[in-house]
Design brief:
251 residues, alpha+beta, Alpha-Beta Plaits, 2 domains, six-stranded mixed beta sheet, five-stranded mixed beta sheet, 8 helices, 11 strands, 45% helix, binds guanosine-5'-triphosphate, binds magnesium ion
């Protein structure tokens, strides 16, 4: 079971208008500081937060209870005038957990009205999450004869293809910066990762490495996924033939 929490700034649209038209720099600073606090508060509870269009975040919250969410809302209220809504969902796959969270908000299924928390919470019941950390092989060499903006264009094409492919596998893809992507996956991560690595090579001429991690919490899964990716690099740098994917699990 994967549990995720969708965080959204409440009544953000009308509030942004209240700032007048010289507002973009203020909005960017607010979004960056909000992200920093949200990542800090959730990661302290062994979750991990993924940016989704800057005014919305996806936290993978395996093992977190409703009380944990209330605690985080109270902390955020100390630092920000704006309020966040939280919608929690859990399911066998990340995409279905996202649907449950969405349904909880849409049908106003309150878990805690005072703190704007909706949805369905699994808390400390059976939890398991698999995350794939993808990284482009040797992007540094591409920088020699391709300009920064053209690199970005290629990375976003790759992001678009990856998001679409993994959505078809009930999995959620996030861009982490640089040439890094993370996919919150279902249980068939290695099969799907291999398929996508072949597709990216065929359609975009991009070589990817995929580190896979399975843990009880998001932080544990991400730690193992990144360790897997670093293991691929170590094998490559030792002169041996590198595997395309590598997998570690705490189970
Ligand atoms: N989010 C995130 N970004 C990273 C991480 N490691 C590196 N980066 C970013 O990715 C960029 C590219 O670095 P690398 O992927 O190490 O460089 P590379 O030339 O592609 O080398 P290899 O991936 O080892 O083939 C860096 O400039 C960082 O911005 C990571 O673990 N997480
Ligand atoms: Mg790379």
């Amino acid at each position: 079971m994967v549990q995720l929490t969708i965080l959204k700034i409440a009544k953000y649209g009308p509030w942004t208008l209240s700032l007048g038209s010289d507002r973009e720099h203020q909005l960017q600073m607010l979004q960056a500081s909000l992200y920093k606090d949200v990542q800090k508060l959730f990661s302290e509870k062994n979750s991990l937060v993924f940016l989704n269009r800057a005014d919305e975040f996806f936290a993978i919250t395996n093992g977190l209870t409703l009380d944990d969410h209330v605690e985080i809302q109270k902390e955020l209220a100390k630092n920000f005038d704006l309020k966040l809504s939280m919608s929690i969902g859990f399911a066998k796959t990340p995409f279905e957990a996202n649907l449950k969270a969405h349904e909880g908000k849409k049908t106003e299924n309150f878990l805690n009205k005072e703190h704007n928390i909706y949805g369905f919470v699994n808390g400390k019941s059976e939890q398991k999450v698999t995350i794939i950390h993808f990284d482009v092989e040797n992007l540094t060499s591409k920088r020699q004869n391709t300009s920064p903006f053209e690199i970005s264009s290629m990375i976003f094409k790759l992001y678009s293809k990856m998001a679409e492919f993994f959505l078809g596998k009930n999995s959620l893809t996030f861009f982490m910066g640089g040439d890094n992507f993370m996919v919150v996956s279902d249980e068939s991560a290695s099969k799907h990762a291999k398929e996508f690595i072949a597709l990216a090579k065929k359609d975009l001429g991009v070589t990817l490495n995929g580190g896979i991690g399975t843990g009880k919490t998001a932080r544990e899964a991400v730690k193992l996924a990144t360790k897997s990716l670093d293991t691929i690099r170590q094998i490559r740098d030792s002169g041996k033939e590198k595997p395309e994917i590598y997998e570690l699990s705490c189970f």
